[in-house]
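We read letters as residues; the integers encode the fold. Take this protein.
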Amino acid sequence: VLTGDRASSTGATPSEEINGPGNLMDFLDEPFPDVSTYEDFHTIDWLREKSRDTDRHRKITTKSRESYWELIKGLLDAWSGWVVMLLIGMLTGTLAGVIDLAVDWMTDLKEGVCLSAFYYSHEQCCWTSNETTFDDRDKCPQWQKWAELMTGNSEGAGAYVLNYFLYISWALLFSFLAVSLVRVFAPYACGSGIPEIKTILSGFIIRGYLGKWTLLIKTVTLVLAVSSGLSLGKEGPLVHVACCCGNLFCSLFSKYSKNEGKRREVLSAAAAAGVSVAFGAPIGGVLFSLEEVSYYFPLKTLWRSFFAALVAAFTLRAINPFGNSRLVLFYVEYHTPWYMAELVPFILLGVFGGLWGTLFIRGNIAWCRRRKTTLLGKYPVLEVIVITGITAVLAFPNPYTRRSTSELISELFNDCGALESSQLCDYVNNPNMSRRVDDIPDRPAGPGVYTALWQLALALVFKIVITIFTFGMKIPSGLFIPSMMAYHHHDWIIFKNWCRPGADCVTPGLYAMVGAAACLGGVTRMTVSLVVIMFELTGGLEYIVPLMAAAVTSKWVADAFGKEGIYESHIQLNGYPYLDVRDEFTHRTLATDVMRPRRSEPPLAVLTQDSTTVEDVEALIKDTDYNGFPVVVSRESERLIGFVQRRDLTLAIKTARQKQDGVVSSSVVYFTEDTPQAAEACDPQPLKLRRILNLSPFTVTDHTPMETVVDIFRKLGLRQCLVTRSGRLLGIITKKDVLRHMAQMMNQDPESIMFN
């Protein structure tokens, strides 16, 4: 649309380069300090980016026939996409491994230190000890708690109080460092990043959000935030970290750095790599990118996402941060079957997950809105310190809230066996029993199980409440996966008929896993990708049906109270111009109801095809902030000729003033195919800009239903569309006009879509 024929650079005068036939990209790609491809907080033009990439491909194909060197360059260009995926996967996997190792060490640092090597975590410290016994595998002389190290006494009230105080102090220090680094060096490093990633992938520009500083600070502060013990996870932020890696490597290849549409294909694949290392689920990562975050996902991106997720998972496996040859701490394997009657509790878990998701979203959005509209938002450091202090004070007494999220989920997911030392596996060992000692299903529950149950109940309530206030603070924060524990006892009446003697009737870890999937599904509204992620965590095909039942039920229940998941809710809260493909528009309004200008507004800023001077164009650019201008035959007729981008105009005039003699402020700008001979002969010289004119801008009539217009914006990724009647220009509809109208139709504040 925006390209012409290329003139030979040899023997061409400067005037011919600007006014003669040539390729638009040749001078539009020339850098100017104060002119960028797209302004910050603006939307990209997907059709334009696609056109530019097609033109680039055509140029490479033509040149590759001229020499072997050009053919090799063409092959390198074709392989550059796979090289970028390889680099993204390797860096993402490496960073994930470093984050896991650092979190493991710093979480344990709050409770004690390893004397043999201070950089060892508690578990690593006791691995190296020769004095560890099976019964006290978590205790070894090399690992000492702070009270024991300082006072020589590990028992008693004094030691408990000292450990309590130091636990809170470390937590406050970590969170203070995290929020301070974010506030000073990279404000965009806060939060999970997924709402912004979704918005960026839909075509929105947020400069610096995926920059080098954001990558560095997000990685460091993510370790600090998770280690502080706050009720958050690292899964969401790892997607942001991976997309920062993708953006970093895009800058190395002009194919991606100069084309925002191609860049977003890479970012979609990077998001898949991020989920791959967060959950140890490469296939789930690809499906997550497809289902949850990506706006444009061609088949080529699917293959490359798969490759990036594979490389990331392989790199993390090579680092082996947990020492168990697994990608995540809470990987489990179940081998016991489930029974049809268990579908009822699985569905009930889904109902609970949907209700929890609704409660969490409404509570968190209400708190975040209060943060935005009150003094609370002016003191982010104080808020983080207060929430951390409350979390640490309440978390320390309960062993299930004191430990890290990953360790807690790992214990809840794992099944009881003869080698387990958890309180949840404290069953009475009666020496007079005729069965084997490790035949756990037939052994009655001991006091440890009952203690663990009420501690878990308190932990559940605590996590539900504190997560609402934690998610959205000015630190890296992912969503904690709330998981639940089910106590099993196969002597109940309903189990009598279908339990085999001496076999597990109910697998507690399976209920915890299904509950976790249901709660995460209720909060995010994920379905297919969620089930696959949980399947990859367990490695068991037979548990697909329980997971599907819980995920679908949680989505149905949550959707009954509102269609938006947590990420879409935060997009709305922040006013990002995100046009969700899943939203339905059923109102009977027309394009004329939405287009600008309205009756009370000044007329549309337009250019004429042969009567506007360079000075007029420069004044129009200076006085307005529009992305482009319609070109008409004359102001009287308003007959539409085409549409010209603001950036193209700016670059064309700057280039003409530098390279073409005779172009001054009074020069007439011509968008016509032929310039009048009288104009050619007169002084000053005219400026011909026909080739930067888009002669086929997308137009609709004033009576086009808005349902159709919304569909066009969604499927074509339009930036704007012109409204005409019988070829006469009436107005313009931008993406933000569409979003404001949709908000107004849903009785929401239309001015909330004002991030620009």
